[in-house]
Design goal:
The protein is α+β, with helices and mostly antiparallel strands and 135 residues long. The chain contains 5 helices and 4 strands, in the order H-E-E-E-E-H-H-H-H. Helix 1 packs across helix 2. The radius of gyration is 17 Å and the shape is globular.
Length: 135
């Protein structure tokens, strides 16, 4: 006798949540963006957003990234990881993110996306760069 279990992550349910969040992000970005809107790193990037419309330097909502001008390739790589988190967790992500805490240095979702790439830690110099400067 097989038991069916309800999967909330990596499932059709989480995918539906991802697409719902993407629709919400798209509408929000469309309403408030005054800058470029482009597809980069698998994200729909809305720039020129007023500061009160997103958190920190920018916010990933589904496949949408909302920001004023924090859209370097490094940051977008970080945000692309958040997009993957949205795909995995769907609408559970906001709840899990909140439970992980506001401190990005302890928040597992920010750590997974890369603290340096997200601008939470200074970029480390590569050893070859440091050795070349010392010579």
């Amino acid at each position: 006798m097989s038991r069916r279990t309800l999967r909330l992550t990596d499932s059709p349910i989480s995918r539906a949540g991802f697409w719902w969040a993407t629709c919400v992000g798209f509408v929000w970005g469309t309403l408030w963006s005054t800058g470029r809107v482009e597809r980069r790193h698998g994200l729909l990037v809305f720039t020129g957003m007023p500061g009160w419309t997103f958190g920190r330097g920018g916010s990933c909502v589904g496949a949408c990234y909302l920001t004023n001008r924090n859209d370097s390739d490094t940051v977008l790589g970080h945000e692309a990881v958040h997009k993957q988190q949205w795909l995995k967790y769907g609408m559970l992500l906001p709840v899990l993110y909140l439970l992980a805490g506001r401190d990005p240095l302890r928040n597992r979702f920010e750590i997974e996306a890369g603290l340096e790439a997200g601008g939470y830690l200074p970029k480390r110099r590569r050893r070859s760069d440091a050795a070349g400067r010392a010579a």
